[in-house]
Amino acid sequence: MNEIQTKRISKFLSLILRHQPETIQLRLDENGWAEVDELITKSAKGRMHFSFEELEEVVETNNKKRFAFNEDKTRIRASQGHSIDVDLALKAVQPPDFLYHGTAESNISSILDNGIEKRARQHVHLSADKETATKVGMRHGKPVILTIRTKEMHEDGILFYLSANKVWLTDFVDAKYISK
């Protein structure tokens, strides 16, 4: 499968598994899982054709590990980033002392005034390294990397989760924990 086809399927899966399963009348369970056979069949009816082998390749080669299969590969879900209500059944874990948030320069004054909000997503996304945060920030304009004092947040009782693809998640980052 070529890179263009892989990217096209990945973008489609992001739409369907994270935001709009109803586009192809796909049923997700409360934890965001979809039956693989149903996904392939309903995608084809919606004119997005791919085989199980192509789906498997997209899941395995996605550099951000956006999607995951269950153990026997009969179900699939997005690892994080949902705008629809799903319970990923993540356990709260202790974060490292610092995490990073990449954003566009145009968002800085609002963030420093109001903190980082999850907005349409279920969680605020944080990165373990500045390189990843920079890539995230570049998608929105000139990137700025913010350092989040997550040890302090955790000590103050704020919960953190680590998604299957190693994105750190929390509900809100108050401006008092942010350093530019």
Structural class: alpha+beta
Number of domains: 2
Low-pLDDT segments, ≥5 res: none
Strand content: 15-25%
User: What is the CATH architecture assignment of the largest domain?
Assistant: Alpha-Beta Barrel
Q: What is the ordering of alpha helices and beta strands?
A: HEHHEEEHEEHEHEEEE
Q: According to CATH, what is the class of the largest domain?
A: Alpha Beta
Report the principal-axis shape: elongated
Work out the helix count: 6
Overall pLDDT score = 95
Helix content: 25-40%
CATH topology call of the largest domain? ADP-ribosylation fold
Question: Over the alpha carbons, how many angstroms does the gyration radius reach?
Answer: 17 Å
Please list the strands of the largest sheet in the order they lie side by side. 1-3-2
Distance between the termini: 42 Å
The largest sheet, given as strand count, sense and whether it forms a barrel, is: 3 strands, antiparallel
Number of strand segments: 11
